[in-house]
Automatic annotation (TrEMBL):
This is Putative glucose-6-phosphate 1-epimerase. SUPFAM superfamilies: Galactose mutarotase-like. It is an enzyme of class 5 (isomerase). Transmembrane segments: none annotated. It comes from Lysobacter arvi. It comes from the Bacteria.
Amino acid sequence: MPLSIEPFDLHGRPCVRLRHPGGATTDISLHGANVLSWKPTPSRERLYLSPNASHAPGTAIRGGVPVIFPQFGARGPLAKHGFARLVAWRFTGVHEATPFGESAVFELDDDEHTRSLWPFRFGARLHVALAADALQVGLEVLNRDEAPFAFTAALHTYLRVAKLSEVELDGLESTPYEDSARNGTPAPAANAPVRFEGELDRIYAAAPRALRLRDGASTLNIESEGFRDTVVWNPGATLAASMGDLGAGEHLRFVCVEAATVMEPVTLAPGERWLGVQRLRE
Ligand SMILES: O=P(O)(O)OC[C@H]1O[C@H](O)[C@H](O)[C@@H](O)[C@@H]1O
């Protein structure tokens, strides 16, 4: 059954609400093609959007699902996390013939501005598919240049939690990680679920594809394809309080579980295409 589309404005930015016949909704801002909200039922918001987020051009929205492309973090010459989250994307409608069946498609193509930052011709597509109990977000990148290019990328998903002290992330027990909160120090597998006690910023290379977030009685299944790595982030109390678009205590309301390709950049030959997907399911 077709998704319905409702355009609206938030903080002066055009947004789209997709509504599933079963009652689920998801909101996407054209600024960064940033998913802002996912409600499997009208009273259950699954994503975190900071009340202090900026929605202005040239800034990144703090929350939802920021699209990180073509550079993760400070791993290259571009501004942190690249430019895709800072610029306006186009909404092309809901299409049937996408890699995921029926999904809303957002487009970002290279232009003078992007080429002044990153000198390649590319087409990026964000596919957002909404089911009764699931949200699937896919990032597709096409090399339209005459030269190969390499990029890193992520879907920087902010998952809303009710009680951070009780949250556990399962699935990464056996994977060593790079500890970004300690200057990238390598750390051995923890042999335990991830718990959030203070600042946590980790890159799990070649991580398992299926994770589970437990928050009291609530669970969320998180799967990815195409993305090799997983980044897990919570800023902790001190950093959250110092961030203008977050604020004191806001770290208690989310964890970021990011489908990412960070450790080994993706290289695309001219005409080649890459697809990375993150799927959230109740
Ligand atoms: O503040 P931002 O640029 O949005 O970055 C937010 C966070 O993103 C990722 O999770 C990185 O691993 C963190 O090191 C970073 O602090």
